[in-house]
Amino acid sequence: MATVREGTRSVLLVVDVQVGVMSQLWESAKVIENLSRAVAQARAQSVPIVWIRHTASYLPEGSPEWQLVPQLVPAEGEHVIDKDYNSAFEETTLDRVLAELGATHIVLGGAATSWCIRATAYGALDRGYDLTLIEDAHTTADMDAEDGSTIPAGSVIHELNVVMDWLSYPNRKSASAKLAEIDFAGLSDSA
Fold it and tell me: What average pLDDT does range 11-35 have in this prediction?
């Protein structure tokens, strides 16, 4: 069983909002706008923000594609963590940084829903954090299946939003909520 985090400290986790990622995804402009609003709201409520940045063959470190989108810029003192795997927890300092911040509740947004958002959400719950997925602040691309069918991006996003509301973990809370419904400071008590 996971170590359940005690306390009520929320952290906004923004995953892979990089130029080379967001340029390929469904409704990315809307998602970037919503993430910008989430960042502003978190900062206004003194909620820490942790930024995750992926490195891969198509996102070489330091390249223009690897950079965060220009609309989303970490403020001085906000953590930026680089990762090589889908989950932001695997072989990174994320768990340590969250512990230093006293985080017990992760508010999650970014890209891509089908891979890094899903893996990070499950990773957070497996590590004992409460989790709220921002319904309208994550995105992905259409998924082409091996049988030749295509799963539309909107369906993938909707499915994960539903799953986050239905998941059940002992002594942890999992939910999804539209950005307009989120009060970062009060999430740990209401998710």
Answer: 97
